Amino acid sequence: MEIISRDPQIVELERWIERIWDTAVRLGLEPYPTHFEIVPATIMYEFGSYGLPGRFAHWTHGRAYHQMKTMYDYGLNKIYELVINSNPCYAFLMEANTPLENKLVVAHVLAHSDFFRHNAYFQHTNRQMIETASINAERIRHYEYDHGTLEVERFLDAVLSIEDHVELVTIPGLGELPEERDERPRPRTTPYDDLFELDRRGGSGEPGGRGEEGGGRGRGGGGARREGEWHGAHLGRRRRFPREPQRDLLKFILEHAEDLEDWQRDIIAIVRQERLYFVPQLRTKTLNEGWSSLWHSRILRELDLPEGEYTEFARLHASVAAPSRHQLNPYYVGMRMLEHIERRWENPSPQDRERLGLRGGEGRAKLFEIRELENDLSFMRTYLTKEVVEDLDLYIYAYEGGEWRIVEKNWEKVRDQIVRSLTSYGIPYITVEDGDYRRARELLLKHHFDGDELDLRYAERTLRYVYQLWGRPVHLETVVDDKPVLLSYDGSRNTKTAL
Amino acid sequence: MDFSVLVSKNDWSLHRKGPIDQARHNAKIKEAIKENIGEIIAEEAIITSDGKKIVKIPIRSLDLPHFRFDPKKSKHAGSGDGNSKVGDVLGQDGQAGGPGRGKRAGDQPGIDYYDAEVEIDDLAAIVFEDLGLPNLKQKQHEELEVESIHFNEIRKKGIMSNLDKRRTILENIKRNAMQGQHPRFGNVSNEDLRFKTWEVTYKRETSAVVIAMRDVSGSMGEFEKYITRSFYFWMVRFLRTKYKNVQIVFITHHTEAKEVDEQAFFELGESGGTRVSSAYKLALDIIDQRYSPERWNIYPFHFSDGDNWGDADNRLCVELVHKLLERCNVFGYGEIQEYSYGSTTTLMSAFSSIKDPHFIPVVIRGKADVYPALRKFFSIKDPVPA
């Protein structure tokens, strides 16, 4: 909808955006063309809680919306902007923002947009995600119409409970990893499948040669393979299924759960697709926010702000990039780390000159290299130095005897703990080990224990959802009180057995 | 500039996505309350609400579970003001001291329940959905006539403010169709008009009295008192909301019984021995003096820990219960046994000889038993089919 009589405040904002854009480009940023939309608080919090405008309906979105909105109503929290990784980039500005808040936020948004465009981990993200999400939401609405709202909600609950367990391509430059070969016989679709299959197998064999055992592959030698054979024919030498443990639980269920209907598989695919879109953002949170905070402050310093806005700018910037005792504020930690790095590469210490061969004067170039190549994990592992840990007064704390206490301040241990928690990004590392466990099509998952135990109550309840999707009993290997245990759900009750 | 900046501002006033999903979440909270009503109604926050309309109650299982680390067994990172040292305390249990307060609600540590704000009236509606005074009978005289108005008729004449637009449009379309025109809306004439009209009905209410008896002797510990209070809280609430014309008599007793007002009844305290028969005698006296069974439905309820003076008094109690049953619709006895010490010595075992189906005994062992007790006492089905 085109505004006919233009609001003078909007015209004024556009003028500032042009200046901010020019400044950003002069400083070296290359954002996508960015469209700004001013929205009221209710809409802002809706987009914030859904992650994307127009995303599918679910009560967890409603809960997040309610919580965010309540925090805002009580003055506890405020979103100034929301920026979507898309091309052109979409950014939403809160209606209630002051002129100065809008300037800072626009500068911040352009830096995000530059980051989305250049960071290696975003190279495979869908840049038309708003449209895709709307189409997905429309499909889910149709399923609600066809199968009932409650039925769809029940299914979405189960899928969303394991939405974290997707696998992202983590090596930049490498496309989608080669598909895991489906090792099961495929259901017959035509009476001549056997013949087609023979033809396929008679070709040049397996590309890449992933350690195949013999040409006959031990399963369909006679050509008269039947669907039921999978269960019986492996008694002697069972082929592992999946061949390698799989981290992408959603994908595994999507492809191999037997009793799912088409609409259900589609919902899994939708949830997985949207999750994969968000994963790069979750894995570059500190770097991305640090990058944007660094540039919003530099861009605003270059602008000729109206009288009186300088103090407001200083106050706002300080509140956005304030240290937090209970978590690492990504705005603060990211920005301060980048500043450290810039100084170090600009004026290297004698040791750095000798050890790393730094020549000096490369501060700016180093920053742009980092925004292109790193994610939070590699960023922290490489650049969280003694100086940074001590300068930012970072520490590790834990729950001891009814209280949360600081337990570690040694910089190496602090760094190691932060790096370790980033390895999983707070998501337990769980793989599919066996899709034919006990030779009864039961599902065996394994939690790769790394010192942090699972929340058992949650794990048990999540297993029920996995059962709902897999349709057969499910098991999870994990460690409780230093002992290996197997959590199981068989459709009627949860059990915990020592291994 | 390599593109033209456009800032837009649209009208979002009809956009309702967030609120719709929020409503679904609220509906789920209600479902969760309904599922856990047994645990919820004995929540301290409710019993001690003192007339507050809204209470906060913890509802489990509203978070969508996922595989996550145990927050209390994990380590987290934070940043200080430059002077932090090992051993500094950041927060107490349950405080916001936890980590990862990210955008997703489920990331909050240690909190796997949801504090829902609920109106007590909404809770009451769920609790009392299908409950009522059992065995209620029509009694003489003390009937109240209540006038109520129902819009339950449609006429062709009436006042314009009561026009039934839907029916009028339907009639108009029908008439158009019958006249061979297209079945469409238009040319409304007087004969199309339909009006809602009302009827006055008279509803007869029967009067009832509830005699609430409560053991306040020394043997009634905190738990027993709490349970009694919790039960009577809901009972009083239930009677007051469901019946316009019900009276409640409050009796407390230790070795002696006395009639008290509502406030005194709910205040905790007193001590001493127990002689249950004193309460039953007082109840009989009150019935005989003030509430003739001819005119009143009478419901005595008694809560005790079952620890009575001795066998002699237990036997007397049995006799008195029989006398009460002659006059009353039902008699409810609740015995609170926090620890089930061989219950042979309690009043309950003495009452086991009473076979009258209008005598309803209930044993309560924990908070969760309050709701079943309410359901048992106020199950609207007559224990004795007529």
Verbal overview:
- The complex is a heterodimer of chains A (499) and B (386).
- With 499 residues, chain A is of the alpha+beta class.
- Among the domains of chain A are: 8-119 and 284-317, no CATH class; 322-424, no CATH class; 430-498, no CATH class.
- In chain A, 49% of the residues lie in helices and 12% in strands.
- Chain A contains 19 helices and ten strands.
- Chain A has a five-stranded mixed beta sheet, covered by helices on one side. A three-stranded mixed beta sheet of chain A has the order 1-3-2.
- Chain A starts with 7 loop residues before the first helix and ends with a strand.
- In chain B, the strands form three sheets. In chain B, strands 10-9-8-11-12-13 form a six-stranded mixed beta sheet, with helices on both faces. Chain B has a two-stranded antiparallel ribbon with strand order 2-5.
- Chain B has helices at residues 17-35, 37-40, 44-47, 120-127, 165-178, 222-242, 262-266, 276-290, 311-327, 347-351, 370-377; strands spanning 7-9, 54-60, 75-79, 89-92, 113-119, 144-155, 195-205, 208-215, 246-253, 257-260, 297-304, 331-336, 359-364.
- Chain B is an alpha/beta fold.
- Residues 94-112 of chain B have low confidence and may be disordered.
- Chain B has eleven helices and 13 strands.
- The termini of chain B are far apart.
- Chain B folds into three domains: 19-67 and 111-127, no CATH class; 144-204, no CATH class; 206-377, 3-Layer(aba) Sandwich (Rossmann fold), CATH 3.40.50.
- Chain B is 31% helix and 23% strand.
- In chain B, helix 6 packs across helix 11 and helix 8 runs parallel beside helix 9 (311-327).
- Chain B is flat and about 90 Å long.
